[in-house]
Specification:
Elements (H helix, E strand, L loop, with lengths): L9 E2 L3 E4 L6 H8 L13 H18 L3 E6 L7 E6 L8 E6 L9 H14 L7 E5 L4 H9 L3 E2 L13 E5 L6
Keywords: Transferase
GO molecular function: acyltransferase activity, transferring groups other than amino-acyl groups
Pfam families: Acetyltransf_3
Length: 176
């Protein structure tokens, strides 16, 4: 049996958001083994990180949307993942982000990629709402969600997770 699916490519001024490739696995697995992934389900053993890599690919097949690999234009090296997430047990569809390396933070890359994904969610995907689930101590992601225009939604349903989180709701965007 063969499953066919197409992952769109999104482009911003400086970034390309593309589908996962087998060649991304090594970088992904190494990144998710690092302590900086504490707010993204990690750090993970190589075995669990590889499964997470594969689940990201499978998410596209099952849901028709998912996370993108983020690269700088003109490079094929993964900088992180940003996109759309709705695994089993999530109360709502999420826009999420994570950069793999600390040296890429503070340059606007996560904002640029997440902004494109919020537009894509409300435009091409036709979503009427989107949230971001954020650990209360993850000040960087809270700041990014607020910069994207999201506001804390204390009435939103929590996802099935053992990790406490805040829920930021993205305002609906009219896209062309």
């Amino acid at each position: 049996m063969s499953v066919q699916f197409a992952t769109p490519t999104l482009e911003t001024a400086r970034l390309t958001l593309r589908g996962f490739r087998a060649s991304d696995a090594e970088t992904f697995v190494a990144a998710f083994g690092h302590d900086r992934m504490q707010y993204a389900g990690g750090p993970m053993t190589p075995k669990l990180a590889w499964r997470h890599f594969a689940s990201n690919i499978g998410h596209w097949v099952v849901r028709g949307f998912g996370m993108f690999i983020v690269t700088a234009k003109g490079s094929d090296t993964p900088m992180g993942i940003v996109g759309h997430w709705f695994p089993h047990g999530w109360a709502e569809r999420e826009v999420g982000w994570v950069l793999f390396n600390a040296e890429d933070e503070g340059k606007g890359y996560a904002f640029e990629a997440a902004d494109a994904c919020v537009d894509h969610a409300f435009g091409a995907l036709g979503w009427d709402t989107a949230v971001s689930y954020i650990a209360p101590e993850n000040a960087g992601s809270i700041k990014l969600a607020e910069r994207l225009g999201a506001t804390l939604d204390p009435d939103a349903l929590l996802p099935e997770t053992t990790t406490p989180c805040l829920i930021y709701r993205h305002p609906h965007r009219r896209t062309a």
